[in-house]
Amino acid sequence: MKIELDVERCIGAGMCALTASDLFDQDEDEGTVVLLAQPATPAQERAARQAADRCPSGTIRVVDDHARQESAAT
Ligand code: SF4
């Protein structure tokens, strides 16, 4: 799976960094989300999905590998 961010939508609520601090941080000036790393373990994948669920602005999108392969094929 892969995390995609639509940073234009981010309102700096910080739920992502609170939920998955090893994956997300916030820009010091703008407060907008910064992606630190793509999830590499099942625990990080769960945390990424939780962060996406908790983000109030829909900034975080979790793309599953099979979905990416399907969209690449079309
Ligand atoms: S939870 Fe969503 S709106 Fe808040 S900082 Fe993270 S990406 Fe931005």
From TrEMBL:
Pfam families: Fer4_13. Keywords: 3Fe-4S, Electron transport, Iron, Iron-sulfur, Metal-binding, Transport. Its cofactor is [3Fe-4S] cluster. The keyword Iron-sulfur applies. GO terms for molecular function: 3 iron, 4 sulfur cluster binding; electron transfer activity; iron ion binding. The keyword Flavoprotein does not apply. Ferredoxins are iron-sulfur proteins that transfer electrons in a wide variety of metabolic reactions. This is Ferredoxin. It comes from Spongiactinospora rosea.
